[in-house]
Structure prediction request, 246 residues.
Amino acid sequence: MLAGKVALVTGASRGIGKAIACKLAREGAKVIINYNGSKEKAEAVKSEIEAAGGQAEVYQCDVSDYTACETFIQTVIKEEGSLDILVNNAGITKDGLLMKMSEEDFDKVLDTNLKGAFNTIRFASRQMLRQKGGRIINMSSVVGVSGNAGQANYAASKAGVIGLTKAAARELASRGITVNAIAPGFIETDMTDVLSDKVKEASEAQIPLGHFGKPEDVAAAAAFLASEEARYITGQVLHVDGGMVM
Prediction:
């Protein structure tokens, strides 16, 4: 389905990013695995993809760094010859009540989750414009739609991703580039593993389907949006949340 395509997945060393990278590789894309600080985990993802017969390369870059992003994406395009799919998955959390949240914790989350997506789109879109085609998929969150106590910075960043997605979709559509967002709900990852059983039970009670999702559920949505089957879908937010937000 994605044979011959080059796909860049940011924050792909674990969790949802890893699942998306592996799924896109299974669909035939050559996957660029981006990481910031987890080189061993990123290399392990590459090995897993190659063991399954896929193609992957590993690149380090802090997506919150504008200049580093420019160099990173230019290098990828030079080495690979094209860039067809961009998945902005890199993200961090620094939770805390708004009245106690430090400026540093607010800025760090916005810089990675929102500015990081801007940085990669800013430079990847140049190549996609030249190619007259491409797929950009931004990872938002259910809390970017509904909000969440103790996550003012994270919710703001993910709400911003939705606005960025819609603006970019309007700007790039005339060249055949689609831009969409995925808003996962509670997914079984390192972020949710640290929750207490009490919090997990309370969270599951908010989900009509009654359970957390898996990274593969999000990966399937990303693969669809990256495919030719989604060629007429742009500027949308696909909720993968078990029905939390309707």
Observations:
- The chain is about 50% helix and 15% strand.
- The mean pLDDT is 96.
